[in-house]
Amino acid sequence: MRLLRLLYVGWLFNLKNLTLSGFFIIVSVISPVVFASMAFLMFRAGARPGTLLFVAIGAGMMGIWSSTLFGSGGAIQWQRWQGTLEYSIAAPPPFIWVVLPLTIATATIGLYSLTSTLLWGWLFFDVPFELVHPGWFVLALPIAVLSLGLLGLVLAATFVLYRHANALGNLLEYPIWLVTGLLTGLALLPGWTRPLSWVLAPTWGVKALRESAIGGDPGFAILMSAGLGLVYLVIGHFCLQYFERLAREKATLALA
Amino acid sequence: MNSIRIFFVGGYLAYRALFNWLRPAIYIPTMLGGPIFQILFFAYIGRFAGLRDDEFFVVGNAVQASALAGIFGMAMTIGGERWTQTLSPLLATPANRIALFLGRALPLIANGILVSAFGFAVGWALLDFELAASEIPGIALVVVVCSFSCTALGLVTGAVGLRARDVFFLANLVTLVLLLFCGANVPLDALPGWMQSVASGLPLTHGIEAAREIADGAAFSEVSGLIGTEASIGLVYALLAYGLLTFFEADGRRRATLETM
Fold this sequence. Notes:
The complex is a heterodimer.
Chain A: H1 2-19, H2 22-45, H3 52-73, H4 75-82, H5 85-90, H6 96-109, H7 111-124, H8 134-159, H9 165-179, H10 194-198, H11 201-213, H12 219-250
Helix pairs in contact in A: 1-6, 2-3, 2-7, 3-6, 3-7, 3-8, 3-9, 3-11, 6-8, 8-11, 8-12, 11-12
Chain B: H1 2-18, H2 24-49, H3 54-83, H4 87-92, H5 97-126, H6 136-160, H7 167-181, H8 193-199, H9 205-215, H10 220-255
Helix pairs in contact in B: 1-5, 2-3, 2-5, 3-5, 3-6, 3-7, 3-9, 5-6, 6-7, 6-9, 6-10, 9-10
């Protein structure tokens, strides 16, 4: 019960903290709206018939990925800079329960993206927001966010080994948008990218949301999202344990 | 003579000092890796949407890549002086302000050209994009002019940074506006009328159009008007930046707010 309370309070605190950051407003609201506008205009001018709801959901998921990438990827480094990393590790609860609410909060911030791209599309591009399977959509959304938050845990735990995590974040934004098919068809990409797509949560998250909204059978994609989330949790747990032990042994916890 | 020394030597030293954190481990993923994937991302959207061929997106995004260095670099130049608490001593010097700030822009223009050239090379290597040898000098000139005009816009952003607290927020916003309006990915004729009007006053719009025409085989004389317009827009932004710098410097002195973080 205390751990659940810690999870909730940590999540809420980080959510409020991130909401006040100008950088995250850019990443989670302004940037997705700009990319959505570009995509709406490109698809409208292009030769491919299709629904703009496909684009709105994809652009929203782009924002969820960006906020997870920048927020979670730099999570431990930020704690180092702020001087709070030692306290977080020395606190009685396992370290994972301190980091997990933060990474889930960074993915939750991404909900601003989905809301803003859907609203933007509806207001300015006549994108209808009519869900074919509203029940599935309501289930798919939190699972997609949670799954990305758990992927964020893996990012937080592994990026710490790279001193310039922010630069790595800059590098990984576009390629993940591309290989997870957020605005393109996966079939267009070279075959070798397919396994990469399968192990990344945004692929299944966006598929689940699209099939819930536009039509199809989202059950498998939702299951894959949830399953991948559990795998990320296990990987993140072991990576964090390893990092913590290494940092304690070498006394490098506070070294920025 | 002193102004020339401030322009070249001062600009070089300021770049070395303010960007001392810029190591290959940061430069390669951010300045080279990011644009590569930006080009690939939009080229694949273009294929999926059935909009234009790869050349359209390679040229648009490779030229647009020069904006990143100019806009963020200039914003960081002024933001960095503030951060390191050297802005007040710098502005207390009697140095010529044009030489002082344009000198700082020079390495960023060179950086923009390098990033853009890398974008073209990657587009040629990975996508369906060809460039004849005879087209390269024209494209190179366009890139130089676009790097200048974007850096001038970056100088405006940096000047506003003398007053605004969060100059990086502004730099991000300006970069996104350029990406949306300047025709790098959305053909200008697909934009609503008011966006086309805004685009015509922004850097990159005419440069990208000129670069695309050159890549399509147009002679240099056919696009010289577009290049001239791009250069003129850059000059207007440079003058605006100078005016804003002068105004905000005087205002910052009066209000004692130069180094307010």
